[in-house]
Write a structure and sequence with these properties.
The chain has 73 residues and is mostly loops. It has a domain at 11-43. The protein has one helix at 46-55; strands at 28-30, 41-43. Strands 1-2 form a two-stranded antiparallel sheet. It starts with 27 loop residues before the first strand and ends in an 18-residue tail after the last helix.
């Protein structure tokens, strides 16, 4: 099992997507803990995180399949 160290980013940390200062917005920290919990990646808000995921097609093959016919949850 991998573990991550919690730390606060620098006050001038830039968004990995748009290069804005993350603390000027609503920052989000993302780590890939399936790969040894590497360095965190910071995004200034959910919109930038979403755009980053979309542009790199990171959701392909990573989501469960659900249909309305299957019922709830």
């Amino acid at each position: 099992m991998s573990t991550a160290t919690v730390s606060t980013p620098d006050t001038d940390e830039a968004c990995a997507y748009c290069d804005s200062q993350i603390f000027d917005h609503d920052p989000i920290c993302v780590r890939d803990c399936d790969d040894d919990c590497g360095s965190p990646t910071y995004f200034c808000n959910y919109a930038c995180l979403s755009a980053h995921i979309e542009e790199r097609d990171l959701m392909a093959g990573d989501a469960c399949r659900w249909s309305p016919e299957d019922g709830c949850c």
